[in-house]
Amino acid sequence: MKKIILDYGKCAHCGLCANVCPEVFGWDAKSSEPFLKNKSKKEQGRASGETDNPCAEEAARLCPVAAIEIANLKKK
Fold it and tell me: For strand 2-7 and strand 46-51, is the pairing parallel, antiparallel, or unpaired?
């Protein structure tokens, strides 16, 4: 499982993440803002959640402003 962090302060609101990985990212047409699906937490201008979906890493790699961070979770 990997931790995914979406930084709204860096986000360019281009929607690329939702297009590349719609299983993990959604798009709020009303606010023109991406969001993380599946029980994510939003605080201090960032959203975080967990995923095993490899397309999340592709979205992070393609993000034009590096607003998406993916990290390995430590095993307990």
Answer: antiparallel
Q: How do residues 42-74 score in pLDDT, each as one tens digit?
A: 788 899 999 999 999 999 999 999 999 999 887
Which pTM value belongs to this model?
0.87
- For the domain with range 2-72, which CATH number is right: 2.40.240.50, 2.40.128.20, 3.40.630.30, 3.30.70.20? 3.30.70.20
For residues 33 and 8, the answer to whether their CB atoms sit within 8 Å is yes
- Per the structure block, which two tokens stand in for 58? 């592709």
**Sequence-ordered list of residues with C-beta below 8 angstroms from that of 43, at least 6 positions apart, any chain:** none
